[in-house]
Amino acid sequence: MCKPHILLPSWYHMEILTTIERKNIDIFLGQKNEDENYLQRIEVKGKKPRKLFFIIGNNRIFFFKVGGKIETDHHFLDILELKYDGIKEITLKFKNDNGKEPLIFGVETDADASEIVLAIDYLFTLNFPGMQSNRLKITVPEPKRTEIYSSPNALIPDMGACGGFTLTYFSMCDHMNIQPISEVSWHIENVISGTLIREFDYGFFFKKERIITADARPIMAALSINPYFNSFSIKDIKLSSECIFSIIGLINQNLYFTKLVLNGIGLDRSTTEKLIEAFNSNKMIPLRELDLGNNSIEDKGMMVLGEYLKVTPYELKSLILNNCSAGKNSMTVIGEAVSNNENILKNLKYLDVSGNRLENDGSSSFSKLLERSKVLSTFLIGNSNPQFHQLSKVCISLTKFDNSGNRITRKDNIHRDMVSFLNHSIYLSSLNLSKCQIPVEAVADIFGEGNLIKLETLNISDNDLGDEGITILCDFMANHQSIRNLDLSGNFSKRTKARQTAIESIVNMLEKKSKTHNSIRSLILNSGYTGGGSSSRQLKGDLLPIVCSVFYNGSLKELDISGHSSGDILAAAIGKLLQCNTGLETLYFDDNSISSRGLTLIKFGLQRNTTITQLPLPIKDIAASLKSDATPLNLQKLTEVSNEIQQTILDNYTNKIQGTTLTNNSIKTQSLSRSRANSTPLVIDTKSTIATCAGLNSFISIDIDNTIEPLANLIVN
User: Fold this and answer.
1) What are the φ/ψ torsions at residue 291 (nearest 5 degrees)?
2) What's the CATH code, domain 19-149?
3) I want to staple 527 with a disulfide (CB 3.0 to 4.6 A). Which of 139, 325, 563, 699 is the partner?
């Protein structure tokens, strides 16, 4: 920790200690990790008059006996009041003194007393710059106070990095007798300092076994008075009860947080009730975003939260309560609260209650929010069993809706209630219908002509639509005015005679949309197969025509074709894609049974590419290759090709960030132009594209190790 600097009296360097006293005091201060910022000889008044040495350290004041042995010490935070009446005497009152008389001591001159006042005030302000309440009280009558604070020795301390957090943290550790965590101060000084980061991410620190226990107390105490950080975040770390109560204490005092994320930390009903008490106690915190998701708060805890939300003064613009084990009763209360509290209603833009139980009553209460709100733009109710006949009201500002995991059937026209809700949300641009078990016959009802006309992002993954459903969907999407991002993952079940038609529909959609201003920018087509059960969702060789169809598609920016076990033949197609395509920026292709040979083909294509900036290595394929062939030669090949791929991606990313082009890019461009000139232009004929993919089979058998341009003469219509 850096030593604080104060302007010491001109006579300070005159030694007033004997050699033995100096040695004893230095040893004691060294053990306490304290510096000697001020030293003076004093005379204690009262029932036991005595002469002592008075030292001001970084965090404490010390009283040493003649001879150099410690009598007592007090942390700055233990001092209630420092009083100086201008008669060469200092009076110190301490907190929790159990009725003892204040400590009164005399000094030799008025100047000595003034220096003590200035030194303690300076160091307290340096360590706790954001403290407003419970601050050390310094009482000096006028005109003496003006005289002291107008002298040249009256300095204003410079606030350290991030609102002086490091010094505050170290001082709090000293006060609580807890060993500081070095990662905390290092992170503040070397990562956050000098940036625009104002969020304190508690989950960043490495020594999680310490931050989840009582060692969190000084961090929370330092944050509670820190004026720099305006948000606190911790996700997916189960904390001890003591650590959670430290966070609750932080919320009870902080005056600066606008965002609070306590997602998946182990909150239950009782700790949630304590958190609500802290909110009720601290009306001054300017909270705008609250995330309590993924905590087992349960119905009783959520009921308490709902009652609080009815009267909270916080103008919340984001509220996340997903997966809180809440039933319909508590969700009804939550819905009524956000619908009727004007502070929330006028500001709430983002609401996530997915993973709880809405059912009839909960759906009805949130319908009131949809009817009254003019600002709600994101509404997430996945896996919550909503009843759309109750969600009859429409929110005109809604742009993003998540209904994932809620089964859609044609029975009793349930899907028609949902379709009516979606189509009345006229500004809806993002829709998640994954894992809804959508029947094929419902696809046309949901996505038919004239429906969801402003939709830009659609996630319809894991619905097992099959070849027929994909064909119907893609035919609609090919003529859709706005769709830009499409997730079709996990929809290919058992291969049928209609598979070729389904592939043609995807290819036709990509090609037709690429000719318009609203082309497909992101296509997610991973298999959704995780390695367990049936692998029927894998496209295997059927994936090749889709890859070949985007060779010259300049509008597609992201493509995910993971998990299809297509083999090295796919690697050859990817290599050619990378060589030809000048628009693609992100590509995922793991779990496709690609060997070191296939990775080499991808590397060759990548060497002629300047636009790809994200291409994660296929870890599953590399692991499988090493498992089947653990020889040093195979390991060397995989290591070398992986390093070359990563280096090329890094070069592309650096060029994109810097807005410059490497000197050899002109050579790459010329080579690329020659390659394209020798290749047959892409023909918008899906059946021809599928047929010519068979040529890849013979291509992957050539000796790539002895071929200078292995991809240059690969021609695919």
Assistant:
1) -130, 110
2) 2.30.29.30
3) 563
